[in-house]
Amino acid sequence: MLRYAFRLHRWGMVGYGVVLLASTVVQGAAYAQLTATPAGRAAFAHDMTLLAAQLSYLLPPPTGLDTLAGYVQWRAWGALQLVVAIWAIASAAGAVRGDEDRQLVDYWLASGVARARVLASRLAAFGLAGLVAVAGGAAGTLAGAARYESISVAGVAGKAIALWLLALALFALCLLVAQLVSSLRGAQVASAAVVVVLYLCDVLARTNHSFDGLSWVSPFRWYDASTPMAPGGHLDGIGVASSAAVVVGAVGLAALAFARRDVRGGLLARPARAARSRDVRPSPVLAWPVARLLYRQRWVLLGWTLITAVMALFMVSIARGSVDSLINLPGLRAVFTRGGSDPYQGFIATFWFSIAQLLLAGLAIHLVATWASDDNQGILTAELSTPRHRWGIVAERAVEAVLAVVLVVAAGSVVASATSAAQGTALDPAGVLRASWVLVPFGLTYAAVGATAVARWPRAVVGALGMLAFASFLIDEVAPFLSWPDWVANLSVFRLYGTPLVSGIYWNGLWAMVAVVLAGFALATVLMQRREVGS
Predict the structure, then answer these.
(1) Are 135 and 159 in contact (CB under 8 A)?
(2) 293, pLDDT greater than 90
(3) Among residues 373, 471, 374, 375, which one has the least CA distance to residue 21?
(4) Residue 262 pLDDT > 70
């Protein structure tokens, strides 16, 4: 059973392992390029310390930024906690609800396997896969620094252990949450909500020390407390012990919950009630296939829209204070005033619209995950048996993606514009409209690539698409620092989007995204016609 469970993690292990490896290698090389002299390191550390205060929602407080090890620990390993959180959410929901939906748990229980052993094997399999992925991050750190300076192997190993324990703790908590609900989507949404709350507990304490006591309930805080890579740092024993205790406690509670509920049922599921007759017929709109797809995703779309609106409100609200505190830094001043634009618009273009791109990439990956789930769970087979044209399935998915992306983009742009006006930094309406509508082909690019992969490799698509999105983000971030050629930089969809709010539309990038969207859904149609569904 352990071998089978570990095999199910192979794509996640490879994908996230490559992400960890690439991130640490690139950040180490970027630091060496930016800080060639001791004076340059001191100036860079000063600038990054000021910037870190504005990025506290994303990265932990830095330590030892005047060293390569300290910078990589902050910039690379600080962001990797969000990467493993996403992996833990998806893996735990699949380990509980995915296996039960495929009736694998019925088979195991019927053959005499104890329920506690089922959960233990799942934890052990994820632990082994996580260990391999984290080892990739450690290897990348050492490899990225090897050409420039030596880094303590013990320090890198300590940070890797802290990240591995964070991943295990989040997986165990999500494993427990998945016992409470009765569907895969419910497990994903509920687990994501728990992880977001725990993350926010840590984020609040980064900028307001009155929340320090609250933050210690968060595994993210325990991870941040360990800084063994930086000079003078240490592996926090309390954080390590707390993470280990959460793993044991959460899995124990999950085992108790699993023992008390029915297979494919949730511990908190309401008892079955007699069916009630309806006086009103269902809306005729639900007879439209696309409307049914959107209705299935209604809570996810609502949640994604609210998250986008909240992030737009937050990022635009801090624009004035952030710009006023950072505008005198030479490098950042050039960023905020590119093309002679208003520095506040430059900040919003740099930070808010970058976050909007990440949110849209995540939304596209979720939609693709739903399409893959329909294939794996037999829903697509049932749809085609009605009968339905296969090209129609792909067309409906494309329309669903368009409507979902437009909804999220519209919400974020409206909130950003309203908040900016209230802050006295009104954005150019034409610029906001320009930056907003170009986000639509950006999000659809990932959906189209995912649609193509779903039509051919539904079981591997989510991990591969997530890895592609991260690689695209990483290329756009470090290409200028490492002086990569333009053709490499343009492999990033983030680069193709450009900064239309302040510098106009990058037309070559726009046409490239449109071409990928059209070609992606066209190729998905061809592959769907030729493929044996369910294989």
Answers:
(1) no
(2) no
(3) 471
(4) yes
